[in-house]
Structures are given as structure tokens and as C-alpha cells.
Amino acid sequence: MLLVTFGTGVLDAATYLGLHGVFTANMTGNVIFIGLGLAGYDASTLLRASLALAGFVVGAALLGRAGRGRAPRAGADRLSAWTLVAVAAVVGAVAVALATTALNSTWLDAVTAITAAAMGAQAVAARRIGVPDVPTVVVTSALVGLSADHGWSGRTHDRAVLLRRGGAVASMLVGALVGALLLRWHIGAGVAASALVLLGVGVRGVVVARRHHRTADHAPA
Q1: What angle, rounded to 10 degrees, do the helices at 46-66 and 78-100 form?
Q2: Which of 29, 43, 50, 118 has the fewest CB atoms found within 10 Å of its own CB?
Q3: How many domains, in total, are found in the chain?
């Protein structure tokens, strides 16, 4: 999940800087942009932030629907693993489109919505996997928990929890740095890098899930 968080940081940096100045994974920023647009301060991003938010919600809703009645399995959830593979395929296709085609504004809007939908599905998949304190698309809660529960605040917390929270923040930060650096080459490079990370995590998840289910099938009743 830290790798997924890293990939999210790469993608958000690439799409924010290289597309329309909106995020495709971190919806907190887009909600702010929509509010600013409605107030007349940043009307240029109002439509695009709305498209990203709508795409994210649709993607999350679709995977939520697909997962209804299918209890997640910690560390071996097939639906989550295959979702990450599918999201990687979508993001990879977006990278190819950006690298090979001169997209006009309308197509870039469509790319924003499609990528955000994929990230919405990814967020639900990460939620099903359920690694504590690593939500993959936003690190505000991890940062709050890290600060409030650290020794300097007078509280103590499990070291593993603090490491996960710190790792989530660091993964997002480094991902954004990498995404911004890759953008100097081409926007498609950052998007492709994110797709490769998601694909690697997803394929590993599929292998682990299959092994887990095969073991369960052969276990004595």
C-alpha cells in the first residue's frame, strides 16, 4: 500500500502539473477548487475539478457495487488485486494516449475524468485491503495521527503504526517529487510510472490471492 501511495503521488503530480491543474486522486484539493470556482475566484478549473470529482465518485461507486456481498480477505483479496491490475491498464492506456496523440481540450477533459474514475476504484480496492493508516489517496489523517500520537505530544503509540503513518506521508511526498521530475521529460512518463507501480502491486496481489485460495481449497474440512 505504500507503493500504491507512491504511485498515487506520481500520478497526481503529473496530472496536476501537466493536464488542467486539477488532481485525479486527491479529491480534497478538487473540492476546494470547485468552491473557489463557484465563488468566482478560479472559474477556469471549476468544470475540470467537477469532472475529476464526478469520475472519482463513479469509479468508487462501481467497485463498491462490484464488492457488495463479497467480504474482503486481508492480504488475499482477489477483487482488490484484479482492480489494481485493471486500474494499471487504464492508467497505462492514458499514458500511451498522452505520449502518442496531441489531445485537444475536450479529450484532455475526458482523460481527467477517466483517470479519476480509475483512482476512485483504486481507493476502494485499498480500503478493502485495509492496511491501517495507509489510505493511498490522501495523507491528512496519517499526518494528524503521526503528530498527535508521537512522543513529543505526550502520547505514545505502537511503533509500527507510527512507521506506517510516516511511510504514507513520505511515499506521497516522494511520489509527487518523482512525478514532477518525470514531467520535465513528458507527462506520459509520470502517468506510465504510476501504471507500472500499480501493475506490479496488482499482479503480486493476484498471485498471493490465488495461492491463498488454492491452499484454502485443499485444506481439510
Answers
A1: 150
A2: 43
A3: 1
